[in-house]
Every structure is written in structure tokens, then in C-alpha cells.
């Protein structure tokens, strides 16, 4: 956990982290994916997309890095919007600002219903009619949300005082902002702003307008800047793909394509599950103790040499297999 006095630790901008975070909070029917391109073919494979989370290097507003749009009162516009009131929480806050505004969707098909779950349903009901700052305090004071958020923090054997590296901390200040359609309007939800930002009226394909808005924001940075990341919150893919493959009405040729997508999604989910398990379990004390015991027992050198031998053997087998093919 971070040494930040707020009790909230830094988390990674990894889609599997966000997917598991939502699931651990009770959200059903949604997953989060990296979005490397906003071209039509890429978007088609991810639809339906319900929200975008934009990660960017925060260099302050008023210097061209801020966004255009009109600030609106969230209560009057019907937008659930919470301010960021503590450090390190912007990723989880962006996810909360997104899912609290994604309409619940009932489905007759297993796994395709979208719902918040009891924890967030109760939180939304409790905060109904509250100001954005109050909602921010409610989120930050939720033990459950903080525990889930902190469960994905990186394990480290060292504890460093951030104040000892003021320049580095400033350079590494990144921030998450949410874009999504609410009541037919594209909104930008940034917890560091006092209110939501309304951009434009949108129809079904709202992502086109969001792409233009985000591209304009990126254009405010120096050419060639690589300090951005874009995540898509979309409907869970595996239940839908499984249903379509098992549907007799699906053409055979299309089933092959869907099967490839399903295999990719399952592989990605399995890899994400493993990575999140490693994130959520601090193995460093076990590793240090193992090294200590091996050093004291005199088995360290033999173990290292055995590992090197196995590595050489694997490389030789891989090389021989490549030559055979």
C-alpha cells in the first residue's frame, strides 16, 4: 500500500484491473478493454461500448491541456457525478462515474444482463440528490471500495517518501477522465472539475463524437507525445459470443470468426485472472524468506545452476523445433 495519508494506493491503468475491480464491487455484464484505435473496424469488434476512460498526463488546466465544452449542473442534467477529494483515487473514481451512469439492462440470456449490484445500488440510492463534492466524500469513505481499490496496488519491499522526489512526482502525474453518453448527450466526467462537461448531442454511434473530442484534447500536447491511454467499458463478450456460436441461425462462416474471438477473450480473461492474483497477493516476503533459507542451507548455487541448465535445455529444444518446422 502507498504511504499516502489518504489510505488509497496507486493502481495501474490495466484493463484487467478495471474489469476485476468492477466485478469485485458487484457490477455484472461489463468488462474493460484497451482501445488502441478508434477506427470503425476496431470499434465494431468491441461494441456495444458504454463508456471510455481516457488516461493522460495531467499538466494543469488553462495551458491547452484542458477540454472544451460547457459545464453543467449535474443535478439539473441528471448526471451522477462525484468529485475527487483524495489522492490516488482517480482511476476508481473514473470507473464509478462511468458505471453509475450506464443504464441497467435486463437480458433473457445468461451473463448478458448489466447491473450495478447491491453495493453500488445502495450507494447510488443513498447519494441521490447530493452535490458532487458530497458524493466524492461518500465514495472515499467507503471501506469496501477502498479495500477493492487497494487490493490491486503493486507490492514493494521499499517505502519511499514522495516528498523526497517532488520533480519526479510532478512529471508522473497522470489522470483519468470518463466520456460517455447520458440522455443523448456526450459528457466528460472529470473528478477534478467542479461539474460535468457537456460536449454535444449524440445518437446511437456516440463514439464518433467522443473520438473527435479526445483527439482534439490530444492535439493540445506536443506532436509525438506518448502519454495517453484509452480504455473502453463494454458489454461482457464471452456470454454474447457463446450464445451466437450456439445459435443455429448464425452462418457457419461467421461461427468460425466468432470462435476465434471467443478463444481470444477466454485466453485474455485467464491471463488477466493470473495477473490479478499476483497483484492481490504480496509474494515478496515469501520470496525473501526462500532466498534467506537457501543461502543459509548452502543450496543457492546449485539451485541457480540447475535453473540455468533447464533454461539452456528449453532454448535448445525451441531452436531445434524451429529448425524442424
Automatic annotation (TrEMBL):
Q: Where is the composition biased (Basic and acidic residues)?
A: 302-325
Q: Where is the active site?
A: 90, 175
Q: Which GO terms describe its molecular function?
A: cysteine-type deubiquitinase activity
Write out the ranges of the annotated region (Disordered).
299-325
The GO biological-process annotations, alphabetized, read as: protein deubiquitination; ubiquitin-dependent protein catabolic process
**Site, as annotated: Important for enzyme activity:** 190
A single GO CC term for this protein reads: cytoplasm
Q: Which PROSITE patterns match?
A: UCH_DOMAIN (PS52048)
| Entry keyword annotation includes Hydrolase | yes
EC annotation?
3.4.19.12
Q: What class of enzyme is it?
A: hydrolase
Specify the domain of life of the species encoding this protein: Eukaryota
Which reaction equations make up its catalytic activity? Thiol-dependent hydrolysis of ester, thioester, amide, peptide and isopeptide bonds formed by the C-terminal Gly of ubiquitin (a 76-residue protein attached to proteins as an intracellular targeting signal)
InterPro entries in the cross-refs = Papain-like_cys_pep_sf (IPR038765), Peptidase_C12_UCH (IPR001578), Peptidase_C12_UCH_sf (IPR036959), Ubiquitinyl_hydrolase_UCH37 (IPR017390)
Q: Where is the UCH catalytic domain?
A: 7-235
Q: Which family does it belong to?
A: Belongs to the peptidase C12 family.
Query: Any idea what this protein is called?
Result: Ubiquitin carboxyl-terminal hydrolase
Q: Which species?
A: Dioszegia hungarica
